[in-house]
Amino acid sequence: MDLRLGVGVAGIERENGGFEVAVEGGENISTETVLFGTDVKPRTGLAEATGLEIERGGIVTDSSMQMSAPGIFAVGDIVFAMNEAADSRQKVEHWGEALNHGRVAGAVLAGGEAAWNMVPGFWSTIGNRTLKYHSWSGGWDEAKFVEKYGAEGEAFTVWYGKECVGVLAYNAEEDYEEGRGIIEQGAPLP
Ligand SMILES: Cc1cc2nc3c(=O)[nH]c(=O)nc-3n(C[C@H](O)[C@H](O)[C@H](O)COP(=O)(O)OP(=O)(O)OC[C@H]3O[C@@H](n4cnc5c(N)ncnc54)[C@H](O)[C@@H]3O)c2cc1C
User: Fold this and answer.
1) Cα 130 to averaged position of ligand 1 atoms, centre (Å)
2) Final residue before a domain boundary, out of 82, 109, 136
3) Residue 80 clears pLDDT 90, i.e. is over it
């Protein structure tokens, strides 16, 4: 493996069926494959400038998605929101939570009562492989790996925390679904 650390990419050109990557400083690297690992950051500057509470890079909200000023709501990746079941604020960046936040904020804005109280989860499919994950965002003390053989063939589940705080399921849909309730109750690992 040949690493260049702390340098930027100046340009990428297609070359002879592969790529020519120009690295800042003048070096060119020929390669067959270019893989991007990218990040996104919430833009909290406007909220910060108006004096709204910001913590851990997110706009602080209560569990009704209301910011520190009454009547102003925020949802999705940008929030550091109170979750009733976790009894703590959570920074979560999954599309399903953006939807859940939106439902809560919408219900409250329409005059109803609603609170964000579900454990965050996401799934990603790469090729024919699907990983599903539910967890709080505060880390874990112990992990238990369980190998399985499901209807889809190879499968596994990782349970996180002595008192369950997360579940990662590969071809183990039943554990992903069961895990939600176990995590929300903070029950011991199954
Ligand atoms: C590469 C990548 C892969 C991901 N994969 C997964 C996955 O597999 N599963 C999963 O659950 N989540 C995944 N996510 C995370 C998921 O996409 C986000 O959690 C979700 O999109 C958050 O929704 P949002 O509405 O909060 O923000 P966004 O979807 O980012 O929407 C914000 C919108 O606001 C617009 N905007 C910004 N500033 C302004 C402005 N000043 N005026 C007007 N509009 C503005 C933006 O253009 C954007 O359209 C992935 C994210 C990335 C980057």
Assistant:
1) 21
2) 109
3) yes
Ligand 1: centre distance to CA 162 (Å): 33
* Main-chain phi, psi angles of 61, to 5 degrees: -130, 160
Cα of 6 vs its chain's centroid, Å = 26
Q: Give the chain's domain count.
A: 3
- Pairwise CA distance, residues 81 & 60, whole Å: 6
Residues 50 and 33 in one domain: no
Q: Report the predicted TM-score, pTM, of the whole model to 2 decimal places.
A: 0.83
Q: What is the CATH number of the domain that holds 59?
A: 3.50.50.60
CATH code of the domain in which 133 resides: 3.30.390.30
Q: Does any domain span residue 190?
A: no
Alpha helices in the chain (DSSP H): 45-49, 95-109, 173-185
Token code pair at residue 49: 């400038």
Nearest CA to ligand 1 atom 14: 94
Question: Which range of residues forms the domain containing residue 145?
Answer: 121-185
pLDDT digits (tens, 9 = 90+) for 1-41: 788 899 999 999 999 899 999 999 889 999 999 998 888 88
Ligand 1 and 131: CB distance under 6 A: no
Q: What is the pLDDT of residues 102-154, one digit of tens each?
A: 999 999 999 999 999 999 999 988 877 889 999 998 888 999 999 987 666 78
Cα 29 to averaged position of ligand 1 atoms, centre (Å): 32
